[in-house]
Every structure is written in structure tokens, then in C-alpha cells.
Amino acid sequence: MGNPFVHVELMSNDVGNAKSFYGRLFDWKFEEMPMSDGSYTMIKVGEGTGGGLMKNPIPGASSAWLAYVLVSDIKAATSKARSLGASVMKDVTEVPGAGSLSIITDPTGAMLGLWQPKKA
Q1: Measured between alpha carbons, how far is 90 from 92 in angstroms, rounded to an integer?
Q2: Which residues contact 2 (CB under 8 A, 6 or more apart)?
Q3: Where are the CATH 3.10.180.10 domain residues in the chain?
Q4: What CATH superfamily is the domain 71-120?
């Protein structure tokens, strides 16, 4: 499979409650990451695809999980998604030291993240 799911992110309206719930439910561990536009929490799940937890940046939206798919060229993949009828919710954005992401909404209304790791 050329484009696997690589990260799952919870955009929550109550970060503290979400940490408490998922930490107790699954024994997940959390690691705080300072970000320029607020704090971000990495979710350490042990084996398998890990994730992140952040305050929901979409005003009025409910808490939701967002999956990210690995791409080799974030700009090309975002452009291709747009040409196929997707809306770009967040254009290509660099995550310092880690890579770049974008968030699209497919023609059916489902959101999906695209992720390209930083090139060595």
C-alpha cells in the first residue's frame, strides 16, 4: 500500500477531559509539544500508529478524530485533491523539524489530513 494512514489526531473541545478519558481507557501516554500557535500533545500508543491531541481550531465544531495519510509530495497531493473536487481546509503547512501537512475535505464532506515527513 503506497499511502498508509500514519497519524490520527483528536481535535477536542475539552483537551483535559480527553486526556483523562483516553489515558484511563487505553493506558496511553502523553507528551506535551510546544507549538507556535498553542500546545499540542503527542499520543504514545506503544505499537501501531500514534497520534496527537489538540484544542479544536474550528469554531463551533464538535470534537472529532482526523486521520492523516502519508504522501511523498504534499504540494502535489494537495493540488491533485483540489483538482478532483476536494476543498482545502488548511493549505500546506510546515511543522518545524517534522514535516508538512494539509487538511482537505473530500467531495462527500469527509475531512482527511495529508502528511509528508521532513526530508533528511
Answers
A1: 7
A2: none
A3: 1-67, 71-120
A4: 2,3-Dihydroxybiphenyl 1,2-Dioxygenase, domain 1 (3.10.180.10)
pLDDT reported for residue 115: 97
Residue 65: CB atoms within 10 Å:
11
Instruction: Report pLDDT digits (tens) over 24-71.
Output: 999 999 999 887 777 899 999 988 899 999 998 888 889 999 999 999
Q: How far apart are CA 111 and CA 4, in angstroms?
A: 16
pTM of the predicted model as reported, rounded to 2 decimal places: 0.89
CA–CA separation, 33 vs 1, rounded Å? 30
C-alpha–C-alpha distance, residues 88 and 4, integer Å: 20
**Helix and strand element counts for the chain (H, E):** 2, 8
